[in-house]
Amino acid sequence: ILNYDIMARFRRRTCIILLLFILFICSIMMALKTLRPDRAGFGDPFGLGLLPELQQRTVLLDNKQNSLNRIQGDTATRVTNLHGIAVNTMKASMPPVNKLEEELSSPNYNFHIFYYSWFGNPQFDGKYIHWNHPLLPHWDPKIANNYPKGRHNPPDDIGSNFYPELGSYSSKDPSVIEAHMKQMRSASTGVIVLSWYPPGMADENGEPTDDLVPVILDYAHKYNLKVTFHIEPYKDRDDRSMYHNVKYIVDKYGGHPAFYRHKTSTGRFLPMFYVYDSYVTIPEIWANLLTVSGSQTIRNTPYDALFIALLVEERHKHDIHRSGFDGMYTYFATNGFSYGSSHHNWASLKAFCDSNNLMFIPSVGPGYIDTSIRPWNNHNTRNRVNGKYYETAFSAALLVRPEIISITSFNEWHEGTQIEKAIPKRTGQVVYLDYKPHKPNVYLELTQKWSEKYRKEQEQWLM
């Protein structure tokens, strides 16, 4: 009888523990479910981890930067004859026996990814560029006084909360460019949206990079990728300068086989230009360039193109329409930061675009953190949640059935939106975030997974 009582109590205790464990798991699943966007209808996202990331900070035993094989020589070719360079580059750049095609996912030309070629290091540039980014002060002096000042000191201390697998690389390093192209192709993206300033111009922390465009085009072609341009807000950007700069890009790079042209609903193949911070220029100026009757019109000329404006506030949609733009994108990888970047507004923005013959290009990102350069901006941090945040954004984008999805970003390390491979690193008092418990290529794999999902969903939309 004693043994029977002991066994009965043991069974009751076991059942209670098991019931509590099941309730605990259910509560976690319900909490994670709140990460999904409203009206999500595409099944469960690809689960990469049930628990929020704990910002695991592991000591890096090996700095992999020096282990990379550096490819010497300059592969850049100058465009002197547009037809000739297209043919010659195609012959020179094709990989042997289509080996790359067998190893990598097919490119999805409806997945556009923002790319930055502004990084430099002493080996290739004589100094560090952008990795030594300054700490930007808050505009309110009282708040600014509470935060550190100065700039970062590479290679161990860089202007990013994450650390790249390739180290503090130079964007001019051919081995880096090729590694980037291979990563983007493995992610099944198809179009590189290259940050661009006119010749001789750059952002306030960088150096001119237009000379690097031919090299990027050549390597992109090798991996069957296309390149379009993300025109930055350079000094004195207006209708006249934009006309000349678009003409420059088309004349110099338009004959390259990697130069992106988008097939329109009318069957035309037109270049596409993303215009960052387009809202700082009034609609009347843009209308001079982008409407048929404008004084500087580019319409119905050899330089006509699709121009995509940045939408931040809701009112910008009306300005974009009046300006003569062909579409809008949202860029920011911070759900809730702006009207445009808030997932729940994408349906109404898509409806507005559909009714006004505009393209709507939502921008998805894996997360956001820029406190390495804006230490006062914690409130805009968006935790990656082991990939769950990224998948939530993709799910929200697919809900509105866009013709194109843009990805912010491949390598904007300052703002922590990169999907490029990152590694754990600890040095001195600096501890970097990483992608653990997953591998450095986890966001490339997630992008490839959603690229395939997009293709399948698109087939259903077109039926």
TrEMBL record:
UniProt key word Disulfide bond: no
Single GO MF annotation: glycoprotein endo-alpha-1,2-mannosidase activity
Domain of life, per lineage: Eukaryota
Pfam family, one: Glyco_hydro_99
Enzyme class, spelled out: hydrolase
Locations listed in the record: Golgi apparatus membrane
E.C. number: 3.2.1.130
InterPro entries hit by this protein: Glyco_Hydrolase_99
Catalytic activity field: N-{alpha-Glc-(1->3)-alpha-Man-(1->2)-alpha-Man-(1->2)-alpha-Man-(1->3)-[alpha-Man-(1->2)-alpha-Man-(1->3)-[alpha-Man-(1->2)-alpha-Man-(1->6)]-alpha-Man-(1->6)]-beta-Man-(1->4)-beta-GlcNAc-(1->4)-beta-GlcNAc}-L-asparaginyl-[protein] + H2O = alpha-D-glucosyl-(1->3)-D-mannopyranose + N(4)-{alpha-D-Man-(1->2)-alpha-D-Man-(1->3)-[alpha-D-Man-(1->2)-alpha-D-Man-(1->3)-[alpha-D-Man-(1->2)-alpha-D-Man-(1->6)]-alpha-D-Man-(1->6)]-beta-D-Man-(1->4)-beta-D-GlaNAc-(1->4)-beta-D-GlcNAc}-L-asparaginyl-[protein] (N-glucan mannose isomer 8A1,2,3B1,2)
Its membrane topology: Single-pass type II membrane protein
GO cellular component: Golgi membrane
Alphabetic keyword roster: Golgi apparatus, Hydrolase, Membrane, Signal-anchor, Transmembrane, Transmembrane helix
Family: Belongs to the glycosyl hydrolase 99 family.
Protein name, UniProt field: Glycoprotein endo-alpha-1,2-mannosidase
Species name: Rissa tridactyla
Originating gene: Manea
